[in-house]
Structure formats: structure tokens, C-alpha cells
Design a protein that fits this description.
Blueprint: H1 4-9, E1 14-16, H2 21-26, E2 29-31, H3 38-45
Parallel strand pairs: 1-2
């Protein structure tokens, strides 16, 4: 919940699956948790790193 305000300011709000419903509703994209490669997946989808 502490990220809710920040997501509103970000150009693209990203939430981790399992986050509170209010956070998921505010985010433009959801990703798996870090143990499932969510950060890498997010960066690939946003074009920040090449797809591997």
C-alpha cells in the first residue's frame, strides 16, 4: 500500500501479482514476484533490456 501514491506519479505503474486490490487497480501492468523473474520480465516488456 505504501507504493500506491508513487504508482500514481509514475509514467507506467507496475504492481506485483498478489498486491492489494487498490494497488493492482492503479497499476498499468502487473508482473510476477521477484522469485519468478518479474523484474526482468517487466524490463523486457518495457524495452529497457533486450529480450532473452
Amino acid at each position: 500500500m505504501n507504493d500506491l501514491e508513487m504508482i500514481g506519479y509514475a509514467g507506467t505503474g507496475v504492481a506485483v501479482l498478489g498486491a492489494p486490490a487498490e494497488v493492482l487497480a492503479q497499476a498499468q501492468m502487473t508482473i510476477p514476484g521477484p522469485t519468478e523473474g518479474g523484474i526482468a520480465q517487466c524490463f523486457e516488456e518495457l524495452g529497457l533490456i533486450p529480450r532473452g
